[in-house]
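ok, trying the design again with the full structure, not the truncated one.
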C-alpha cells in the first residue's frame, strides 16, 4: 500500500518519510523542494501533478503548507492557493483515485484569539470543542482546509482525519521577549507543559490516524504533549505558573537552578490531547517530566529523530530582527 507524504522536505514531512522507510513502508514524497525524501518535485497547486502522484496511493499524509512564518513574506492569495486550493486538489483527486484515508496536518493556530484570555482571566483550557478564532491568514486558511476535509467525508465518503498539531519546529521563537529572556532549550522545555509536541510523537499520531481513519470516518484531534495541568490550575497559571509546575512536576526546580533556567511566570493556555489519546490509541512519550529526566541524565532534550532532521528554516533569506519577520517588511540582513 503506497503512502503519499506531501511536504516531504519539511520538518514533519521528512520525519514521516524517515519513519516510513525505516519500517519498510512504500512511501513517496511530494514537495516543491528537492530532497533525499522527495520523490516528486512539484506543487500541490498543480492539479495534474497531484493526479500523477496519487496513482496507486492508498493513504495521503498531507503536511505541505504555507506556515505562520510566511505570513509576512507571502501574499494572502499565496496562502489561499496553497493551503486551500492545494488541499482541495488533493482531496478531490484522492476521491477519484479511491484513496482509503486522508490525514490532514492542521495547527493549533486555528484557535487564534480563543487562546488569549485577557489579563486577570484564567488560562484557556483548549480542547477540540473550543471555537476557532483565527487571527491571521495562516489560521484562516488552515481552518478552511479542515472544513474541506470534513466536506469530502460527508459528501464523498473519504475517511479524513484532521490533526491540529502544536509546536514542533526547532527554530528560535519569533517572540523577541522569549528570545532575549530565555535560552532556546529553556523556552522549548517550558512549552512541553502546554503547547509543544515532540516530532516523534507527531509522527506516531499521524500513522495511528492513518490506521484508524477507516473506522473513525472523520475526526479532529489536538496533537500536543500531555500536560500535567488540570482545570483547577487555570487561574493560578496566570502569574504563578512556577508554583503550579512545582506542584505538578516535583523536582524540576533543582535541575532548572543548576542550569540557570527559569519557568515562564505566566501560561495563558493549555492544549488538551485527551481525545487524540482515546480515539487514536496515541501514547505520546515526551512530556515535560520526560524532558526533565533527560536533562538530569545529561542527555540531549531532543529525540533522535529531531536531531537527525535538525533546523530547516522557512526562508532562503535571513532577517535582521529575528528568525523570520512577524510583520510585513521585515528587514533582510
Amino acid at each position: 500500500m503506497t503512502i503519499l507524504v506531501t511536504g516531504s522536505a519539511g520538518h514533519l514531512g521528512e520525519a514521516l518519510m524517515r519513519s516510513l522507510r525505516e519500517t519498510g513502508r512504500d512511501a513517496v514524497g511530494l514537495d516543491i523542494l528537492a530532497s533525499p525524501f522527495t520523490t516528486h518535485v512539484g506543487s500541490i497547486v498543480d492539479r495534474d501533478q497531484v493526479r500523477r502522484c496519487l496513482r496507486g496511493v492508498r493513504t495521503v499524509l498531507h503536511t505541505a503548507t504555507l506556515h505562520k512564518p510566511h505570513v509576512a513574506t507571502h501574499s494572502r492569495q499565496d496562502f489561499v492557493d496553497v493551503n486551500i486550493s492545494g488541499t482541495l486538489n488533493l482531496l478531490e483527486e484522492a476521491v477519484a483515485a479511491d484513496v482509503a484515508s486522508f490525514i490532514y496536518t492542521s495547527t493549533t493556530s486555528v484557535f487564534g484569539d480563543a487562546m488569549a484570555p485577557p489579563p486577570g482571566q484564567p488560562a484557556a483550557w483548549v480542547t477540540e470543542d473550543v471555537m476557532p478564532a483565527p487571527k491571521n491568514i495562516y489560521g484562516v486558511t488552515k481552518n478552511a482546509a479542515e472544513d474541506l476535509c470534513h466536506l469530502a467525508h460527508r459528501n464523498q465518503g473519504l475517511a479524513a482525519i484532521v490533526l491540529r498539531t502544536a509546536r514542533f519546529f526547532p527554530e528560535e521563537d519569533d517572540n523577541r521577549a522569549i528570545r532575549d529572556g530565555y535560552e532556546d532549550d529553556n523556552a522549548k522545555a517550558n512549552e512541553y507543559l502546554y503547547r509543544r509536541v515532540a516530532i516523534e510523537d507527531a509522527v506516531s499520531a499521524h500513522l495511528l490516524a492513518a490506521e484508524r481513519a477507516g473506522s473513525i470516518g472523520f475526526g479532529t484531534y489536538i496533537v500536543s504533549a500531555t500536560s500535567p495541568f488540570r482545570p483547577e490550575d487555570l487561574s493560578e497559571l496566570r502569574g504563578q505558573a512556577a508554583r503550579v509546575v512545582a506542584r505538578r512536576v516535583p523536582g524540576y526546580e533543582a535541575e532548572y537552578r543548576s542550569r540557570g533556567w527559569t519557568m515562564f511566570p505566566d501560561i495563558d493556555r493549555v492544549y488538551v490531547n485527551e481525545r487524540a489519546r482515546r480515539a487514536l490509541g496515541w501514547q505520546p512519550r515526551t512530556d515535560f517530566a520526560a524532558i526533565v529526566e533527560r536533562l538530569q541524565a545529561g542527555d540531549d532534550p531532543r529525540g533522535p529523530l529531531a536531531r537527525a532532521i535538525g533546523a530547516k528554516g522557512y526562508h532562503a533569506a535571513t532577517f535582521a530582527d529575528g528568525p523570520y519577520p512577524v510583520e510585513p517588511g521585515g528587514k533582510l540582513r
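Keeping the full-length input from now on. The mean pLDDT is 93.
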